[in-house]
Each structure stands twice: as structure tokens, then as C-alpha cells.
Amino acid sequence: xxxxxxxxxxxxxPGGSLRLSCAAFGSFFSIDVMGWYRQAPGxxxxxxxxxxxxxxxxxxxxxxxxxxxSRDNAKNTVYLQMTSLKPDDTAVYYCDIEFSGRNYWxxxxxxxxxx
Length: 115
Known about the structure:
Helix content: under 10%
Largest sheet: 7 strands, mixed
Structural class: mainly beta
Number of strands: 11
Strand content: over 45%
């Protein structure tokens, strides 16, 4: 059984910063990919950022240069540092991990960017 525990969401003004964290608990040898998706009201869930076990990163065009995805393999934790936040970044952010050919999701954390 795998459990993902997210933290770090909240309300922030435009231009501000937030850091999301997601810790994975359970029985696994290693995690292939760790990352984040988000879903805004009335929109489909979309990928935001991913990082492989080898350190290769992927970012959606809309967040490149503003968000940084990193992982601590010893702690089975992934982080999303978000800067220069915009109202369009408002969404529920979901942690996602992949290993042994399966995906596992966190419960989601709300990020609201508003003045």
C-alpha cells in the first residue's frame, strides 16, 4: 500500500511564492518518476512538472522559469518550488509518483493566487 502526503498549499498574492511537498510512504524499492499535476475549476487535470530517478526534468511551458521540481530520494519526497505566481496558477495540485508501471496520486492541495 502506498500513501502520499501533500502539504504547502494556500493563498498567496500574485508575484508571491509557495513550496509544495509530497512524501511517499509504503513498500517500494525505488520511485521512477515523481511530479505534480494540477486541475483548475472547469478544466482537465494537466501535468505541471516531473522528475525522474536520474534527475531528468519536465516542465509545462506555462511554468518554465518559475517553478522548480526537485526530489529527495532518501526521504521519498518531491518538492515543487513555485515563484512569480499568477492567478492562472490557481488550482488543486496533485502529487504523482510512478513505479513498477503504476501511478499513485496524492489527495491534492489547493493553491489560490489572488490579491
